[in-house]
Design a protein that fits this description.
The structure holds 2 protein chains of 2 kinds.
Chain A: E1 2-11, E2 14-24, E3 29-33, H1 40-47, E4 55-60, E5 63-64, H2 69-74, E6 76-79, H3 91-101, H4 107-120, H5 136-148, E7 154-158, H6 166-179, E8 184-189, H7 192-198, E9 201-206, E10 209-214, H8 216-223, E11 227-234, H9 237-246, E12 250-257, E13 263-269, H10 276-285, E14 289-296, H11 300-309
Parallel strand pairs in A: 3-8, 3-9, 6-7, 7-8
Antiparallel strand pairs in A: 1-2, 1-4, 4-5, 9-10, 11-13, 11-14, 12-13
Helix pairs in contact in A: 3-4, 4-5
Chain B: H1 2-17, H2 20-43, H3 49-67, H4 72-77, H5 79-85, H6 90-111, H7 114-122, H8 127-153, H9 158-182, H10 184-193, H11 209-234
Helix pairs in contact in B: 1-6, 2-3, 2-6, 3-8, 3-9, 6-8, 6-11, 8-9, 8-11, 9-10
The chains are: A alpha/beta, B mainly alpha.
Amino acid sequence: MIQAEHLTKYYGPRAAVRDVTFEVAKGEILGFLGPNGAGKSTTMRMLTGYLPPTSGTAKIAGYDILTHSLEARRHIGYLPENVPLYPEMAVADYLHFMAEIRGLTNSRQRRQRVDAVMEQTNLTHMRDRLIAKLSKGYRQRVGLAQALVADPEVLILDEPTIGLDPKQIIETRNLIKSLAGEHTVILSTHILPEVSATCQRVIIINDGEIAAVDTPENLTRRLRGAETLQLEVRGPREAVAQLLRAQPQVLDVVAEPAPDGRTLFTVSCALGSDLREQLAAAVVGAGYGLAELRSVRLSLEEIFLRIITEEPQAEPVEA
Amino acid sequence: MRNIWAIARRELYAYFVSPIAYVVGGLFLLISGFLFSLILNLSSEATMRPLFGNLSVIFLFAVPFLTMRLLAEEARSGTLELLLTAPVRDSQLVLGKFLGALLLVLAILACTAIYPAILLLAGNPDRGPILAGYLGIVLQAAAFLAIGLFASSLTQNQIIAAMLTFVILLLLWLSDALGNYTGGRIGDLFRFLSITRHLDEFPRGIIDTRHVVYFLSVIAVALFLTVQSVQSRRWR
């Protein structure tokens, strides 16, 4: 449904987006994850036809954004990052206008769609309210309703949950998830739980380039780098730490105090290894009390920090 | 066509929910009504001729206020991003904006129809020159609006847009005097460019195609430049 090919955008000599290539299948929800200024908005603005790429191109529903801009735009609903609205208009009037210029020419059909999206975004009771008088959360919803109103196949949502309260965030995520299947969605965010909560696939974008593409689950697995186990043990701290370090495939051990006089050991193991049984046997065999042993999954947050903070230079050489 | 009409309608909506339409329209009618009664009392003639020149001056001051926000405000608030990513051609956007402003001006001018109505009730004015005069003033106001729209496309700042419009209109206004001063071929050119000179003959009841073509050309050139300016925004 969306094919981006080598999208590149230079602002003067500075590259905001460099050689970004990806594809989104019909009905899929794709997350763009990256820190502020990574190039998420620029990429989206190129897809929507607002900014022309310096080089490369993209296809929306089979239409090239450069050569068939109008047809491509006909298939897109777009929520820009700053949620531009006309403050002097009432909610329903605004949605009517957006529906009309987005191609809903039949007025009865338009009325139906406007009513439907107001229902979907919980705006029905605000229909005659001036947009200028709305709170930030409601404005965000009007922005989302505007993107949905013409029932486009492709939705491009730039930070759709920014400025919402936690309850609204969950409602909005559920709404976006409910759009999958019928609609193809790209959403950007710098909030990590958002992607794992809504997206089927994630593109991590950093410094204008794609750093990783995968499902949230695979990404966790792939980037775990080292398996991490945590053991809660009763016994002398130094002796146990030494015992654990002595096990094959153990890379590092960190000890910290735990309740009831036990010690919590965080053990990094080589990639792909499963040392749970081996470590348990070693601890118990040495006569120490093993209270707990668990495998730790890295949260997306950590992966994210890891990817983004990764230095391009060579790793420090150990002496 | 439908897109143009949708954008024009929204523009009118914005004019009428904000005080702009009422303030500018009200002041326009206040000043023109004052001048109409003054002229009528002094001359005791059933003619609109002197009034059309005055309407033209009032438009010189009023139009920058009507056009300054048309595109500048959209660019500042970011709504232009929505318009430019909607399946609407840049030319449709520009024509819609122009049409919206023109309809407001026509509405204001329609209110001035009370002056010829008074003349018709009280005397027997020559109708041809009144109709021709209205045609001239509409053409001129439309040319002013197109220039104002162009100025508004160049900046995100409404004050700058208004000032720029006023300066361009004033220069076109004064080029008549400049032409008289320099004389010769160049003087003819300046006089030809003068936006006031082309209005003179309409209130006398003469519709000369040269003047009609002049105003239509100004409108076409200004709108064309506006479309170019909107398009160039995409390439910045």
